[in-house]
Amino acid sequence: MHAIAVHGGAGTLPAVLPAAQETAYIQGLAAALDAGNAILEGGGHSLDAVCTAVQILEDNPLFNAGRGAALTSAGNAELDAAVMVGAQQRAGAVACVRHVRNPVLLARRVMERTRHVLLAGSGAEELAFEEGLDLVPAEYFRTPERQRELLGEHRPAGAAQSEGTVGAVALDAAGHLAAATSTGGMTRKRPGRVGDSPLIGAGTYAKEGVCAISATGHGELFIRVAAAHHISCAVEYRGLTLEQAVQELLREILPRLDGRGGVIAVDAHGNLVTGFTTEGMFSGLADSTGRREVSIRRQP
Predict the structure, then answer these.
(1) What is the pLDDT of residue 158?
(2) Which ranges of 77-188 does DSSP label H, i.e. alpha helix?
(3) Among all residues, which ones are annotated catalytic?
(4) Among residues 74, 80, 61, which one has the least CA distance to residue 143?
(5) Among 54, 82, 97, 151, fewest CB within 10 Å belongs to which?
């Protein structure tokens, strides 16, 4: 059994999304989902699947990660990312990197090549240089859309807003779980701000035999409730199903703090869950039964 889910953030949606824009989002999600799923179908590791999927989303300017990252109040992209594998709960993360094309790959290098979990700023970028990862000028991230958002200009009528993060979770045929999350954070955030995505147990988590989670939403609130870890503990220690645990977080825990967002998760049996309390969520699911869904989901 193998299974994978991807997300492109959760946010606001118009009543009717222009066909061309909807097609572009669906194609972007599908490319990430299918690339990750192909690795699993070939017997590959869940970590390779989630990193590949997230890297593709980072390269797509439609999503708030990598190329399409939101800009700080100073007009720069400061990127966060994390990866985690369920086996031995190994993890790596980076925060506030400004010149790394694919932060998810750097987060993986932190996990695999250092004794640390989280590197930030110049220290993280020095590792990227040492590892030969692609480094780009700051202008690479300043897309016209993100510049307009920074200046507070109105979005075109009917435009969607993909907020928060991108992420992927996967279970491979050997039973290994993995999660990866990447983000540009909040538009006009204070320089140096770090959200939930690179914080293990907040926006990203995986534990072998239990589940893997990638979250998207108001990062400060996901940090305060240890959102991803809460879901995992609810499954492992309280016997909740993955669906029940996700819904408890989104509809009971976060609303107490006036929080909203979305979650993708997969458990050790290959059950996939997508939940959200924003207007909509960009997501895709696939597994070894032949299930494949890619959609821009809206609240019923």
Answers:
(1) 46
(2) 103-113, 121-130, 144-150
(3) 165
(4) 61
(5) 151
Distance from the first to the final alpha carbon of the chain = 31
Furthest C-alpha separation in the chain = 49
Q: Where are the beta strands (DSSP E) in the chain?
A: 3-11, 79-85, 90-97, 118-120, 166-171, 177-183, 204-207, 211-217, 261-267, 272-276, 280-287, 292-298
Residue 90 CB contacts under 8 Å (≥ 6 apart), including other chains:
84, 111
Residue 157 has pLDDT above 50, yes or no: no
Q: Which residues contact 141 (CB under 8 A, 6 or more apart)?
A: 66, 67, 68, 69, 71, 76, 77, 79, 184
Calculate mean pLDDT across residues 207-236: 97
The reported pTM is 0.95
CA distance 55 to 104: 7
pLDDT at 18: 86
Percent of the chain with pLDDT over 70: 95
Q: List C-alpha distances in Å: 253 to 23, 64, 226, 239, 257.
A: 34, 25, 10, 17, 8
- Checking if the pLDDT of 160 tops 60, the result is no
Separation between Cα atoms, residue 205 and residue 83, nearest integer Å: 8
Q: Where are the beta strands (DSSP E) in 37-109?
A: 79-85, 90-97
Cα dihedral sign, 193-250-172-50: negative
What local confidence, expressed as pLDDT, does residue 260 receive? 94
Q: Domain 3-298 falls in which CATH fold?
A: Glutamine Phosphoribosylpyrophosphate, subunit 1, domain 1 (3.60.20)
Residue 12: pLDDT band by 50, 70, 90 thresholds? Answer: confident
